[in-house]
Amino acid sequence: xxxxxxxxxxxxxxxxxxxxxxxxxxxxxxxxxxxxxxxxxxxxxxxxxxxxxxxxxxxxxxxxxxxxxxxxxxxxxxxxxxxxxxxxxxxxxxxxxxxxxxxxxxxxxxxxxxxxxxxxxxxxxxxxxxxxxxxxxxxxxxxxxxxxx
Length: 149
Fold this sequence. Notes:
The protein is mainly α. Helices cover 68% and strands 0% of the residues.
């Protein structure tokens, strides 16, 4: 999903928590930031390839996504899916467990979960498998013997 939508949903969700559920401004800001900054893993994919220009990476990712979406659902299955480190149960569990140590991690967990829920709705809309946002280990395993797009 485009960053502008994550920013919008993150802001609205955080605002509702502050206004109606009496979350502090600090917790609302942490939830908002974590709901948006989780996409830093998209940047990491390109940074690991030595590409550090954020704008160029964003454009390249949009091109890759458009190319992938132009394929039929069956054609897409032949190609590897990108692995996004922070978009899997592996990360959700880490922050959930850390939330028992300090409440800051609970706010980060809530922001991440908001982000993932929005991403899941997008996957449903695009008729993509939900497992891509549920486990990156699963994505890694299913990528074996597939071609790069």
